[in-house]
Amino acid sequence: MAQPTSSAVRRPRRILRWFLVLLVVILVAAGAGVGWWAYQNRADPIPDGTPARPAAAAVNPRIVAVSPTAPAPTVEGVAKALAEPLKNDALGKLTGQISDPLTGKVLWSRGAQEPRVPASNAKILTAAAVLLALPHDARITTRVVLGADGQAVLIGAGDPTLSAQPEGDPTFYSDPARIADLAEQITKSGRRVTSVAVDTSAFTGPAMARTWDKRDIEGGDIAPIQSLMVDGARLKPTDEYSPRTEDPALDAGRALAAALGLNSEVEEVAAPAGAATIASVESAPLTVRVGDMMRFSDNVLAESLAIELAAATGGEVSIAGGAQAVLATLNKNGFDVGDARLVDASGISYSDRVPASLLDEVMSAAAGDGHPKLRSLLDSLPVAFGTGTLIDRFDPDRTSGAGWVRGKTGTLTGVSSLTGVVQTVDGRVLAFAMMSGGTSPEDARPAVDAVVGALRDCGCRD
């Protein structure tokens, strides 16, 4: 074997020496660091007469009511505050109204009586109507009955939040009923089930409004409105922007069949009269479902809620009937709906027409004392730069209002609307409705936000 050269023998020793030198340097540096830290943090004597260290501040999170005596803005003050942001050409044609919920006084108005395309601001009217007319704890019961030859019939009652997600898995809607629960009840009943069918007879009329675009099904904005569906008809149950199915009821039936381990085809039938109920589940309360609809501007849930209202008030249990029930309920409760026209309850139709004055009137009523049943409507509104459809709006780097504005957005091509409430720096809560049209929403939304943000910044008492 070849022997190593002398330089190869010396190399390990040289490396060892350098390692020892480096170790000494590190230890010296560490010692110096410890000494410096000790010097910087030495305990100097406390001079005589020095006050005692105050106690640490205690954090006490709580909800504080808005003062009813907060200074009231004036018409002149609001006009002055809005003068600059209203010059923005990105607003296109802007109509709107601002009012003081405590006094009912209109502080600013521009074309507020003109009916305009509201986009999803129509959901404010839907939410208000169902909260005024229905019990806030109302739930929808979905049942399964046993038909002939062991056929389980899943009967739709109008709850699109029913979920096919397995027990324990996340869902899009809050605290929904589950197909898994129905399947478990059926199994525990001991009844022999050979197939699954669905009954959608609770709703009447077309499943799609004539003015809707069928491409919006794949786009995720809408689905055929049937009395039975799961996860809002989303193909991806927890994805807000998921494409929707064209067969909501049959897909719900297939989900139940899969949960029962059945391989049979699912068909649509009329449930046998007097058939025994073998399983049932209940939706979340009305206020929870309204909250989900408003925060995420869910069109399918909006249409279903309106039809629920129509059924409860004796109207036609259809898309058109739901829209009619919304306006009829508001009219019954004293709101001026004379210039409003709704062909749906979600606002995705360009045929809808609503004046800003009506939107502001409803919002002011929710924030004031006239309609206590509407108070929960405020809780359902997204928070500026915080939640829902306002999560990426009112960026503090560009405008004011983050955390102080709550509002419902509305967006269609060429339409940008925003209705809600804002608290001024003086603590006064103001209601507002802004409807912009004729410019790109990408440009219009920041311009509308700047107008509302100006309300936050001002006491508006000049």
User: What profile does the largest beta sheet have?
Assistant: 5 strands, antiparallel
Q: What top-tier CATH class of the largest domain fits best?
A: Alpha Beta
Outline the low-pLDDT stretches.
Answer: 1-39
CATH level-3 fold name of the largest domain:
Beta-lactamase
Distance between the termini: 101 Å
Mean pLDDT level: 91
For the record, the CATH architecture of the largest domain stands as 3-Layer(aba) Sandwich
- Structural category is alpha+beta
Q: Name the strands of the widest sheet in spatial order.
A: 2-1-12-11-10
Name the CATH superfamily assignment of the largest domain.
DD-peptidase/beta-lactamase superfamily
Total of helices: 12
**Which percent band covers the strand fraction?**
5-15%
Total domain units:
2
Radius of gyration: 31 Å
